[in-house]
Amino acid sequence: MLMLILYIILFVFIYFIHKLVTKLFTSNHGFNKRKNITFGDESAVHPNRAASIFSIVTLFLIWAAFTGSKLSPLHVPGPFIGDTSFSYTALNAQNQKDDATVYVRVSYIGEEFEKPAISDKKQSGFAKDDAVKVGAWRSALIGVQKNDDGAKKKDYQVIAINGQSIEPKQSVHVKNGVVTMTSKGNLSFTPSKGWQMEPVWLPAPEAVFKRFLEITRHGYQNITLFENVGWSLLRVIAGFLLGSVVGIPLGYAMGLNSYFRGWFDPIVEFMRPVPPLALIPLIIIWFGIWETGKISLLFLAALWIMAIAARAGVSGVNISKIHAAYSLGASKWQVLIYVIIPNSLPEIFTGARVAMGVCWGTVVAAELVAAEKGAGKMIIAASKFQQTDIVIIGIILIGIVGYGIDIFMRKAENILVPWKGKG
Amino acid sequence: MIIADPACLQVDNVSMTFNLPDKRTVDALKKIYIELHQGELLSILGPSGCGKTTLLTIIAGFLTPTDGQIILNGKTVRGPGPERGMVFQQGALFEWMNVRKNIGFGLIMKGISGKTADRRVDELLETVGLHGFGNKPVYELSGGMQQRVALARCLANDPDVILMDEPLGALDALTREKMQELILKLWNDSGKTIILITHSVEEALLLGERLIVMAPGPGHIHKEYRLPFASLATEENLREIKKLDDYSKRREEILSMIWDMEEEIMRRNV
């Protein structure tokens, strides 16, 4: 919630700064600057690349600020680290009161550290001083009674913390933390957590980057990053190609012949809205968890999309073109090769882009269920060991590869079907 | 004057009735009879819905008439064929091919390729005034140039009859006039038989050596003219012809005829 508010504030703040700066430093040239109406004029709206850069930098800064990273000069308050203390008041069976101090040392989990030494130890009274150590973001039970005289007696109890009275299940805020009394009358100390995220939840960017270098070099669970992503990609390509090889001719047949259209229409229209993920259980039952299963799933994911795209491509051909080809002496076969297929290519490319996207999403999900190698398998394995950094690396890689596939398909489209939308 | 040879194209009492999905029937054409001789240029004019495009589609062989037949050089037409070339209003070029390949399409279909085909395409590029545009993608050309490609593509097959379905309908007035001159020139040079369907009275008068005015409900031939303007235009500038008294008289006559038909349609639909 705090992050969201901060994000919105930064968005607005940077927007105004950027606007001010561009106003001061850019001259009034360029066609769009001459337009009096830009609100509602789609052609005047283009992605502001400066804003894209600000956006990415902002995300990283927020990430860094909330994880105590060295990349960000400013941080939100972190967890309390260091020594602190509080005092408690105990009442013994003789109805006597006595105070003692608890010395607490807080440090990061994973670092070696000692309990604090008790300086100028209290000599008199039945309550004795204590020393404890706690990890940041954790809490520690303090056996304050253990070393107190008469604590084993039934009527002994702690009645106040720093002078504030306390009862079981209540908490008292002390300096740098909270003291809570359990239902059995024990004390527990939780040091202030601050606003930063614990590394188990969200590691700092540099920690993620360090882990990234490590697993590119040495792999994760003996499988290199390249292998993991490569296997996922291979599956996608295999499934997509199989789906296209079957789906495109099927779509053509549906677009060219009424009987085919009638026969396959119910199947295609029924299967199209079924998300491929819903098929995973059935696919596992039928084909098992190995490659056959995953590739069949991707095949099914691509099949309907490609069939529908090919059908739309055939249906979309202008009848004048078909008539023109016939009256120029073309045979049915020549009309198919020279007119119908090239005319449907733009639609097929659009379908292929969608299919590749869907396949990529599906393969990751399928690998979450069962796989030996793969991007999805890597993140699910890492999550089981709470290796959040690897999970994040996996997610970023999956995003980058998915985006890369889309860019690749768009470039291929521009090169292979330059006539798209110009007929 | 050439002695009239036997009709090259005969539209023999063609009728066409469409069955609509709701079991109504629409009579689109009724007993159309046209005889066309080699080298004649016939323009067909009429209000929308008079069946002129249907007639052209039947002549092209895309539709079989419910009654009557089309006879070309003594043979009944049973389907589309390269001896009847078509020029469409627009959108009929193959945008995945460049200009040369579009023009050479008919040749490839016939199995003619290599130098013979190249030479033919070069000639045609010259004829329609697209010299140097051969390797451009067709979608980069203007509307007028695209229609030049369509004309050349049709001529490549050396058809007996050229059927034009409002070929200039989508062009602006200036381009239109240039294209009208081109069509007249092609007609004059090649001696092809041409049937031209148009919306424009001026175009029908200028280009039609013969002019048929069709009327709707069901589509029939309302009136037929023989006009001198197309032949005149081979010597005279088109704009000069438009100034002739005879021309404006005919134009007014036909315009009011079509006007009356449109009124009639409106009245019937109310």
In DSSP terms, counting alpha (H) and pi (I) runs of 4 or more, how many helices of chain B? Answer: 10
Q: Class of the largest domain in chain A, according to the CATH hierarchy?
A: Mainly Alpha
Number of strands of chain B: 10
Helix vs. strand class of chain B: alpha/beta
CATH topology of chain B: Rossmann fold
Distance between the termini of chain B: 50 Å
Structural class category of chain A: alpha+beta
Average pLDDT score of chain A: 86
- The CATH architecture designation of chain B is 3-Layer(aba) Sandwich
Largest sheet of chain B: 6 strands, mixed
Principal-axes shape call of chain B: globular
Looking at the overall shape, the CATH architecture of the largest domain in chain A is: Orthogonal Bundle
Name of the CATH homologous superfamily of the largest domain in chain A: MetI-like
Give the helix tally of chain A.
Answer: 12
Taken in chain order, the helices and strands of chain A follow as HHHEEEEEEEEEHHHHHHHHH
Helix content of chain B: 25-40%
In CATH, what is the class of chain B? Alpha Beta
| Average pLDDT figure of chain B | 86
- Beta content of chain A comes to 5-15%
Defining traits:
heterodimer, A: 423 residues, alpha+beta, MetI-like fold, 3 domains, 5-stranded mixed beta sheet, 9 strands, 12% strand, B: 270 residues, alpha/beta, Rossmann fold, 6-stranded mixed beta sheet, 4-stranded antiparallel beta sheet
